[in-house]
């Protein structure tokens, strides 16, 4: 499903003395089946932006189109289930959403809300627990007896179980150790390769460089850049204004240019950087 | 070097747990050093912190803090020598405002009010949060809250500051400010820093890394020695340093010296190769 | 009532203990008013106090919102059910009379007075100042071994964590809505059931916050509340004395107007 934002503005506490703009006239497209990263400083409006895609928030003005579903300021809270089934959302520290007495029931909760039969939901739970790298035997346990990392995976399985076409991830790896982080990121990449649209909010520019095909930069509620990561990380204006930090490889390449090396475009992954250095040193 | 913490043959098993969280662990920590403790989740890092501060009681073994073996009688005195910055900025903010929070530890010591007012101001200046004195925690960023937590700890003039994954919930800006601040304070206030972390950049600031696995120390050395483990570091909950990853992609075709190279060293090597072309 | 609004004016600077007690006192004397003159006088006093606070009047009107229906209902009740010897209009059990109109008017003004004055207290006094005031007012109870300082600390920590738990609730609600929960849809049982996925995570995170906080407090040397000194002090100034005298004068005038 393609997702389109047209002149979307969102104001918190409108008509009150403490009103402030969460989003300011944002227009852009998120392409179907792609891996899109959304970056920006804390409080820039990234989370506000993605909450419009499944209508957890409604625009103060403007429209959002998700597939053939249109969300406007007038959209009411009825009949949102089909939309929310299509758009799954993994929140920051999603383990805090667990509540059932067994892992299995908790994973089944979403699919059942969206109208799946108990049998289908159970089947889905068994499939998903393996997909997120946990043992099926955990299904009978209470989610509150698991370790933090396992709880995170159960929560993610609970979102994936409804088989959403679009998956929104709000810093899904925050607080995990490096191995866990990489496993989770690889999982999302493989889901995308299986045909899902992935939208990732992150502060980690290396994840953007390694996983995303598209990126958008949000600053103070405004969309200030969009494109493929290669291009955006080479956007001199953004870098000069300090609105974007570089992935480690690009930052290192930039320092190499002080003496001898020159890059037409800053490489953003270790592999690209390695290839460039080899070419420049071996002279071919 | 003068020892400030000395741990001998420490054992701890959580009630109802099958495996011990800390097994026969011995470790000396020296005055004014910055020590990183790394390890996977569940390797015993946080348990060790709680043992050092007497928040849980060891099954066997001893912990000596600033020359005194801690026991039930002197634990409150030992705690005044140690300050801990915890992981979640929201869960350790006791006061209704920044100044109240910084004062909390001093109130516990029964410090007279006039001294307290001075100590709070000084601590807030040290962490550059003096302008936020009257703000409530809801209006602060994660990084700012952690700086207030540091001020609260500094106000009581500890000798040891333990950072228990205290930057893991911060955004990159917040993390950078907090780490720079801690580095500066360590020399300024002659502090010993123990940081428990998964963050490779945080360990780069330290002088020594101890790797914990299953409640035991499996490695103890200078950062460059530990980084030499390369991709194996992941097993111990630390990502592979950027430079060693880059070096391993280059080694096939480019001649580089053995062992771990930090960014400066790698840059120098590459520049040298480039100018010799 | 409203949440504390940062600002600075005479009303902000008054000692919170005085503000706290005099607000209660004022709510008490509102019930002494019995005629147009006394109600008009009290209304003038409240408007004067609001003016002194330098706070936008809109915030006070907002304070009325949550109790709007209660006011409307009570006023309507008085309008339609006050018994009268010569009603203006009469239909079945309903009676509309001049007396009813007057009483309804008084009740309406009484609501306004009470809500505005308590909104004034909460807008200009931080929760922690209120909790300090309570501690200070309860201090005599220490003599009978009532743990006043512990209770005050408990109260201030509770106040400190309310906004955090509100945020947590919003987040959990959003997460469950994203998993297909409809709040406020379906029958009563279904609605009550839809709160289970919020309440359980909220309990779990409250406990984890409480545990973390207890550990953090202990590591910072909090034992049992004994031997602690206090950072916050309340200071009673000349302006607070003036306020008390002013309030006494208001009472005097009110008593005079009552029999006017």
From TrEMBL, chain A:
Membrane topology type: Peripheral membrane protein
InterPro entries reported in the protein's UniProt record: AAA+_ATPase (IPR003593), ABC_transporter-like_ATP-bd (IPR003439), ABC_transporter-like_CS (IPR017871), ABC_transpr_CbiO/EcfA_su (IPR015856), ECF_ABC_transporter_ATP-bd (IPR050095), EcfA2 (IPR030946), P-loop_NTPase (IPR027417)
Transmembrane segments: none
EC main group: translocase
Keywords: ATP-binding, Cell membrane, Membrane, Nucleotide-binding, Translocase, Transport
Stated family: Belongs to the ABC transporter superfamily. Energy-coupling factor EcfA family.
Summary of subunit composition and partner proteins: Forms a stable energy-coupling factor (ECF) transporter complex composed of 2 membrane-embedded substrate-binding proteins (S component), 2 ATP-binding proteins (A component) and 2 transmembrane proteins (T component).
Protein name: Energy-coupling factor transporter ATP-binding protein EcfA2
Organism: Companilactobacillus huachuanensis
TrEMBL record, chain B:
Keyword Protein transport tagged: no
Source organism, top-level taxon: Bacteria
This protein's UniProt keywords: ATP-binding, Cell membrane, Membrane, Nucleotide-binding, Translocase, Transport
InterPro entries listed in its UniProt record: AAA+_ATPase, ABC_transporter-like_ATP-bd, ABC_transporter-like_CS, ABC_transpr_CbiO/EcfA_su, ECF_ABC_transporter_ATP-bd, EcfA_1, P-loop_NTPase
Gene3D superfamilies: P-loop containing nucleotide triphosphate hydrolases
PROSITE patterns: ABC_TRANSPORTER_1, ABC_TRANSPORTER_2
Topology term for the membrane: Peripheral membrane protein
Subcellular location as annotated: Cell membrane
One GO molecular-function entry: ATP binding
Domain ABC transporter: 5-239
Family according to the record: Belongs to the ABC transporter superfamily.
Protein name per its UniProtKB record: Energy-coupling factor ABC transporter ATP-binding protein
Organism: Companilactobacillus huachuanensis
Lineage: Bacteria, Bacillati, Bacillota, Bacilli, Lactobacillales
């Amino acid at each position: 499903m393609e997702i389109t934002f047209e002149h979307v503005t969102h104001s918190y506490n409108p008509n009150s003395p403490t009103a402030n703009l969460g989003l300011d006239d944002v227009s852009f497209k998120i392409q179907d089946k792609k891996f899109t990263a959304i970056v920006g400083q804390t409080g820039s409006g990234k989370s506000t932006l993605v909450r419009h895609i499944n209508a957890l928030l409604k625009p103060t003005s403007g429209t959002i189109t998700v597939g053939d579903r249109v969300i406007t300021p007038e959209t009411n809270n009825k009949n949102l289930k089909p939309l929310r089934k299509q758009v799954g959302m993994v929140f920051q520290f999603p383990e805090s959403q667990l509540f059932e007495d067994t892992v299995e029931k908790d994973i089944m909760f979403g699919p059942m809300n969206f109208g799946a039969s108990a049998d289908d939901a159970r089947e889905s739970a068994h499939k998903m627990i393996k997909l997120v790298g946990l043992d099926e035997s955990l299904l009978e346990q209470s989610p509150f007896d698991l370790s933090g990392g396992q709880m995170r995976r159960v929560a993610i399985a609970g979102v994936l179980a409804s088989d959403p076409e679009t998956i929104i991830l709000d810093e899904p790896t925050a607080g995990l150790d490096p191995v866990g982080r990489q496993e989770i990121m690889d999982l999302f990449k493989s889901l995308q390769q299986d045909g899902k649209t992935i939208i990732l909010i992150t502060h980690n520019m290396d994840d953007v460089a390694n996983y995303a095909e598209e990126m958008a930069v949000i600053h103070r509620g405004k969309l200030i850049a969009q494109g493929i990561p290669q291009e955006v990380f080479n956007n001199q204006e953004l870098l000069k204004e300090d609105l974007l930090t570089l992935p480690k490889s690009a930052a290192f390449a930039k320092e190499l240019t002080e003496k001898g090396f020159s890059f037409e475009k800053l490489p953003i992954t270790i592999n690209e950087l390695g290839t460039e250095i080899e070419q420049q040193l071996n002279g071919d | 070097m003068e020892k400030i913490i000395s741990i001998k043959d420490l054992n701890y098993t959580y009630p109802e747990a099958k495996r011990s969280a800390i097994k026969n662990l011995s470790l000396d920590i020296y005055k004014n050093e910055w020590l990183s403790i790394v390890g996977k989740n569940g390797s015993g890092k946080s348990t060790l912190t709680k043992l050092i501060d007497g928040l849980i009681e060891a099954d066997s073994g001893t912990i000596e803090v600033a020359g005194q073996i801690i026991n039930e009688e002197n634990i409150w005195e030992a705690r005044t020598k140690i300050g801990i910055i915890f992981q979640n900025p929201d869960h350790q903010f006791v006061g209704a405002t920044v100044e109240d929070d910084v004062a909390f530890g001093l109130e516990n010591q029964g410090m007279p009010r006039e001294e307290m007012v001075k100590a709070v101001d000084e601590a807030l200046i040290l962490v550059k949060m003096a302008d936020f004195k009257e703000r409530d925690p809801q209006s602060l960023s994660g990084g700012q809250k952690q700086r207030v937590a540091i001020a609260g700890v500094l106000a009581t003039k500890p000798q040891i500051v333990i950072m228990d994954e205290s930057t893991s919930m911060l955004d990159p800006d917040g993390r950078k400010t907090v780490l720079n601040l801690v580095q500066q304070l360590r020399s300024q206030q002659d502090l010993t820093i123990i940081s428990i972390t998964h963050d490779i950049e945080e360990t780069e600031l330290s002088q020594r890394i101890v790797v914990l696995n299953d409640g035991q120390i499996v490695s103890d050395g200078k950062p460059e020695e530990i980084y030499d483990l390369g991709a194996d570091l992941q097993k111990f909950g630390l990502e592979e340093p950027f430079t060693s990853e880059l070096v391993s992609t280059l080694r096939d075709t480019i001649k580089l010296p053995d062992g771990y190279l930090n960014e400066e060293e790698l840059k120098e090597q590459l520049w040298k190769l480039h100018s010799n072309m | 009532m409203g949440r504390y609004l940062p600002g600075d004016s005479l009303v902000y600077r008054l000692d919170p203990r005085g503000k706290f007690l005099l607000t209660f006192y004022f709510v008490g004397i509102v019930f002494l008013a019995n005629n147009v003159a006394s109600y008009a006088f009290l209304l003038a006093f409240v408007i004067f106090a609001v003016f002194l606070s330098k706070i936008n009047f809109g915030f006070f009107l907002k304070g009325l919102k949550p109790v709007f229906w209660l006011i409307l209902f009570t006023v309507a009740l008085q309008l339609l059910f006050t018994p009268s010897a010569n009603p203006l209009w009469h239909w079945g059990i309903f009676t509309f009379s001049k007396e009813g109109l007057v009483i309804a008017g008084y009740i309406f003004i009484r609501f306004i007075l009470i809500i505005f004055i308590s909104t004034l207290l909460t807008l200009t006094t931080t929760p922690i100042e209120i909790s300090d005031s309570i501690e200070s007012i309860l201090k005599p109870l220490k003599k009978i071994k009532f743990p006043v300082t512990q209770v005050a600390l408990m109260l201030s920590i509770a106040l400190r964590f309310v906004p955090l738990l509100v945020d947590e609730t919003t987040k959990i609600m959003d997460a469950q809505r994203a998993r297909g929960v409809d709040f406020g849809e379906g029958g009563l049982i279904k609605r009550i059931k839809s709160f289970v996925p919020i309440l359980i995570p909220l309990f779990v995170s409250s406990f984890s916050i409480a545990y973390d906080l207890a550990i953090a407090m202990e590591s910072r040397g909090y034992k049992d509340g004994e031997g602690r000194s206090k950072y916050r002090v309340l200071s009673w100034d000349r302006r607070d004395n003036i306020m008390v005298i002013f309030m006494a004068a208001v009472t005097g005038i009110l008593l005079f107007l009552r029999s006017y």
